[in-house]
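Kindly inspect the following:
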Amino acid sequence: MLEEDEEGTALTLISEYEPSNFYYKIMYKLTGWISRGLTMEQMERLAECVETAYNKEV
């Protein structure tokens, strides 16, 4: 979701994971922490790319 305010534009990302069976539930419990870490790293890189592209246009 994109929202604009006085400071600029904010991107809100809602990500959900719903395991389809017991095996995936267990695997998610065991590896979920690393998935969250990787996702946050990718979101930070996305923010940097967007800021760089925006600053080039201005």
Observations:
- The chain has a mean pLDDT of 84.
- Residues 22-57 form the longest helix (36 residues).
